[in-house]
Amino acid sequence: MIRHDWTLEEIRAVYDQPFPELLFQAQLAHRENFSPTVVQRSTLLSVKTGGCPENCSYCPQSAHYDTGVDRHKVLPKDYVMKQAQEAKDNGSTRFCMGAAWREIRDGAEFDAVIDLVEGVHSLGMEVCCTLGMLNESQAVRLKEAGCHAYNHNLDTSPEYYGEIISTRTYQDRLDTLKNVRKAGITVCCGGIVGMGEQIDDRLGLLQELSKQDPHPESVPINMLVRVEGTPLNETEEVDPIEFVRIIATARIVMPTSYVRLSAGRTEMSDEMQALCFVAGANSIFAGEKLLTTPNPGEDKDHALMRRLGMEFKSETVEITAPAGCGHTAASTPADAQVANS
Ligand code: SAM
Ligand code: DTB
Ligand code: SF4
């Protein structure tokens, strides 16, 4: 059953169950809605990097911190198209373009990103964007250009948010999510574990996500990538079992959403990732790089899938549909070939 009225106490009771009970309940929810052996993949590309005016304490791209990230303006279209084609050839069905913007500003740079969205959409890939805050008309423009999903994270509980970011409010984020939804773009919204927050903040994030109606189609759970120069660089490591518990709880609270095992996988063992998949994670970012930090890469991920007898989802995307009208996805036997080759 899809619920939008989970109380914190209820979510805590789910989270606090004995580990085998929690994983069993997560498996039940997962199997009711998805294949337990199939993992979806997206590839990320930072199309505008660094120099962001926001002060998100975790982020290597914030202009407030000296992290050594190379800044660049919006990348040229031919370069982005090449990257997208490569991602497609490697089996990714989604291409997610990120920009280190506080918010979208109408003008030449946004026009350039719209052109990128149209270009990648024409390759038959599902296009996702994460460009900061946006208004209603900007969301409509993205939708018309063929943007399928928009990533905009709530990051943590409303109570802890101010400890991490002071240049915008939780309500700002919620407003953007509303604009995205209204334009008919699917929502990718999650958060970060490991920023010094309490368990209740993690559960409070899940509660906020579950209040969204409909639930976000995709819920990225990031484990903080500690980047030198950011205020969170020295934060304590996340307990892997606590992390798996959050994945399982997300799966139970939002049973039909893709739960994405996002940043932080280079620090995770195969065993920890395996537990996350058992707990209901069914999506990852593919490739050597997230936006600015490393990711395990194709070879390692294929090896992991083989070890686990699992497979990557492969979809064909209908590009004859009117721009921005979503897609029809069909599983092909290629999944199994990739996984078993
Ligand atoms: N500027 C846009 C925004 O903030 O929405 C888009 C890009 S931003 C880098 C996308 C998301 O990446 C953030 O909301 C945050 O959840 C995640 N992120 C950024 N730095 C991270 C880090 N060091 N570790 C884990 N996740 C991180
Ligand atoms: C999300 O939740 N995680 C991805 C994606 N959405 C855009 C980004 C992770 C970024 C990690 C830090 C970096 O590589 O700069
Ligand atoms: Fe800017 Fe997004 Fe990084 Fe915050 S998370 S500093 S908004 S790029």
Give a structural overview.
This protein is α/β, with parallel strands linked by helices and 341 residues long. It has a single domain (8-318), classed as Alpha-Beta Barrel (TIM Barrel), CATH 3.20.20. 40% of the residues lie in helices and 16% in strands. It is built from twelve helices and twelve strands. It has helices at 8-15, 19-33, 77-89, 108-122, 136-145, 158-164, 170-182, 199-211, 240-253, 270-278, 298-308, 334-340; strands at residues 38-48, 94-99, 126-130, 147-151, 186-188, 191-193, 218-223, 258-261, 283-286, 311-312, 315-317, 329-331. The strands form two sheets. Strands 1, 2, 3, 4, 5, 6, 7, 8, 9 and 10 form a ten-stranded parallel sheet that branches. A two-stranded antiparallel ribbon has the order 11-12. Helix 2 (19-33) packs across helix 9 (240-253) and helix 9 runs parallel beside helix 10. The relative contact order is 0.17. Mean pLDDT is 92; it is low at 316-341.
Bound molecules: S-adenosylmethionine, 6-(5-methyl-2-OXO-imidazolidin-4-yl)-hexanoic acid, iron/sulfur cluster
Count of individual domains:
1
CATH topology: TIM Barrel
Q: What is the N-to-C succession of helices and strands?
A: HHEHEHEHEHHEEHEHEHEHEEEH
Number of strands: 12
Helix content: 25-40%
**Biggest sheet record:** 10 strands, parallel
The chain-level structural class is alpha/beta
Mean pLDDT: 92
Strand content: 15-25%
Overall 3D shape: globular
**N/C terminus separation:** 38 Å
Extract low-pLDDT stretches. 316-341
- CATH homologous superfamily - what is it? Aldolase class I
* Tally of alpha and pi helices: 12
CATH architecture: Alpha-Beta Barrel
Rg over alpha carbons = 19 Å
